[in-house]
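Why run this: before we spend reagent on co-expression, it is cheaper to look at a predicted model of the complex and decide which construct boundaries make sense. The entries below are exactly what would go into the expression plan.
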Amino acid sequence: MEKNIIIKTKNFNFYYGDVKALTDVNIKIEKNSVTGIIGPSGCGKSTFLRSLNLMNNLILSARYEGQIIIDGEDILHKDIDVVALRRRVGMVFQKSNPFPKTVFENVAYGLKINGITNRDFIDQKIEESLKGAALWEEVKDRLNVSAFDLSGGQQQRLCIARALAVEPEILLMDEPASALDPTATLKIEELIQELKKKYTIIIVTHNMQQAARVSDYTAFFMMGKLVEYNKTNIMFTNPENKITEDYITGRFG
Amino acid sequence: MTNRRNNITEKIGFGILTLCLIVVVLIIVVIFTNIIINGHSAISWDFITKAPTDGMTKGGIMPAIIGTFFVTVITAIFSIPLGMGCAIYLNEYATQNMFTRLIRISIRNLAGVPSIVYGLFGVMLFVEFMHLGTCILASGLTLSLMTLPMMITASEEALKNIPMSFREGSLALGATKWQAIRTNVLPYAIPGMLTGTILGLSRAAGETAPILFTGVAFYLPYLPKGLFDQFMALPYHLYIMATQHHDITLVRPLAYGTAMVLIVLVFMMNLGAIILRYRLRKNRKE
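The model came back. Tokens follow.
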């Protein structure tokens, strides 16, 4: 398993000013797997996710120590190229955030900022990405309508397509279905199963059933600590930790 | 019982607010009617296309219109890039600490500094220290200084209104900070920034004090031919006609006519801002 590890953290600590948000997180994430991150509100799961593409660097009081190694490279090293990292580690946000542009422009955005101007290549890439996000059939005839004219579920899949267009290796998803209805949620979950063939997916979710359904591995965070991390089927049937069991069975959270 | 009382409070509150609105609208209506009634007889094609004659008791105000137009253009050239650049830096790049807070407070306070103070500062800096002399350039620069605080504050507000998710969304796709700002923040902030900017400019067009010592002239037989010439301007012309002329009652209609032209000019600039904003907003797909 060791050589299939794409992300490895070593004693990762994270602070917002004086508040410690994550304590000594050690985790190894396997390539082409889906890892679900669960835990009560404020446990640090989103902070952890946003550390993996250095999105937390936008917060001024943020401080961290330890190591996060992605593809053998410590991304916390000061010489890291943040822009290149974010191209490799894509992100889908909790609240779908399409840009106020057309469907086409949204997906093309990542390509254009990378300096790609070849129209044929962009067209092809957009079809590919929209197909990858299971949205192509629904929007192929209206690529030039505003992204805001799509339904909520379509908007979120558009955001996934937008992330796929820049060909990341890793896809971070921060509660991608929390604002969607059950049908749209199901579509996203099916999509995740499809996507893991090509990408490594880490998904934060509030929804325990969702973690159980979609993820191969599950990490349970609590008060900034990684309490338990195991294969999902083991974690949900036979958790090692009493506190994990309490959380999974809904005794708190 | 309480329900009834709430209803009465509601009605009184609503009544007071409506009254405020009526008073404000009324004041504006009175000012406009006064100017139109007293000034419309002076307005003619000659009035806006001819220079003043006979000791400014006859003729038109064309040189003042031209002067105001060009001094406003100079103001725009200097203040728009500087103001927008400063707002972008403050809102997007600067770290939020004591120092930037101090800068921000200072800028807001500068917006409240009386315009005569800017006029005096302009004399000192541009006319004297930089040896520009009294000229249209010195006046334009002084007006730029005066409008900058307003432009920066308005532009920063416009940038603040752009959701954080637009920036995060592009950064997460591997955009550099400037790419994110240029492609996903500015296009949507520009309409708001322009509105503040043009409002600032229209205020500059109507100011007298900053140009008083720096370049405006009471009467010139020629039009300004370059940046270092003096010029005539509508607000100053109005000031002269209303207070300094040797026969104030005789030229009163001309003064009202000048006021009317100035108001129409400022009104047109504001209308331009609204149209521009509307057209730019349409580009944003919602």
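The radius of gyration of chain B is 23 Å. Chain B has two domains: 2-42, 45-285. Bring this page to Monday's planning discussion.
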